[in-house]
Amino acid sequence: MIMSNNYPSNLEDHLGYWLRCLSNYIHHSFAALLAEHDISVAQWVVLRTLYDKQNISLNEAARLVGVDNSSLSRMIERLVQKNLVSRTNIDKDRRSVQLSLTSTGKALVPKLAQLADKNDESFFQILSTQKRQELLDTIKQLLETNGWDQLTRGKDRIE
């Protein structure tokens, strides 16, 4: 229950607090599953994005993933070292690169997607298909109403 302006509300009174708790719990569970493959959650997002969008620029990938170019560049470097992503220079001064999954990366993504599915199922199994869809619709509505623009992130759905 939220109190008057003279007394601060309790942390547990805020829906955002509980959403963050759930998000953290889901994230850490998924991170543990991915760790078995030496992949972070952020790297998974990059790999999954490149699975659908081969031969894209660093700028486009950063937009789709929702991170800045320098952060993505560091992630890409780690994925290149793991032979999961290839980086090809497309101009002579090396400022523009195209990113693609290697054959190893392409083979790994479906395996990691199964882990993502398993993690989702673990957390949301108590919800019926209808309740899951309602929750998803509510989350999308809240995001959209509050200015989150799926188009700038290149996504047409929340995963």
From TrEMBL:
SUPFAM superfamilies: Winged helix' DNA-binding domain. Signal peptide: none annotated. Residues 12-144 form the HTH marR-type domain. Pfam families: MarR. It comes from the Bacteria. Keywords: DNA-binding, Transcription, Transcription regulation. InterPro entries: HTH_MarR-typ, WH-like_DNA-bd_sf, WH_DNA-bd_sf. Transmembrane segments: none annotated. PROSITE patterns: HTH_MARR_2. This is MarR family transcriptional regulator. It comes from Candidatus Megaera venefica. The lineage of its organism: Bacteria, Pseudomonadati, Pseudomonadota, Alphaproteobacteria, Rickettsiales.
